[in-house]
Amino acid sequence: MAEPKTKYDRQLRIWGEQGQAALEKASICLLNCGPTGSETLKNLVLGGIGSITVIDGSKVEEGDLGNNFMVDESSVGQSKARSVCAFLQELNDAVKAKFIEEYPEALIETNPSFFSQFTLVIATQVWIFGIII
């Protein structure tokens, strides 16, 4: 594993060691593993975010193969949260990664305080109060 100062050299020049330290302390939650959310999380993982939690209750389908490069043919029928989380963990093993195989809407409804532990929650394709966000 590369020395952190070498691994993140480019971004350290932008926001310095304090900024990098803040990033490394941050905890991100992704609701649903669509292409937009997965791509956003990928950029944060490459930057050295502290931890990620991926929440998605769906399985990888054939249609996902063309729009989410984090899944492949061997992922079809598998947990989307598990597949995306495993891919992201391969990109940067210094990031603590976990997944929850549950539909985000159910978690929002039954345990909304769960989300207070995160620095940032990224929600994509979530139906709340009859609208999609």
From TrEMBL:
PANTHER family in the record: NEDD8-ACTIVATING ENZYME E1 REGULATORY SUBUNIT (PTHR10953:SF29), UBIQUITIN-ACTIVATING ENZYME E1 (PTHR10953)
Stated name of the protein: NAD(P)-binding Rossmann-fold superfamily protein
InterPro entries: ThiF/MoeB/HesA, ThiF_NAD_FAD-bd, Ubiquitin-activating_enz
One Gene Ontology CC term in the entry: cytoplasm
Molecular functions per Gene Ontology: NEDD8 activating enzyme activity
Pfam family, one: ThiF
Species of provenance: Actinidia rufa
One BP annotation, GO: protein neddylation
Domain THIF-type NAD/FAD binding fold: 8-123
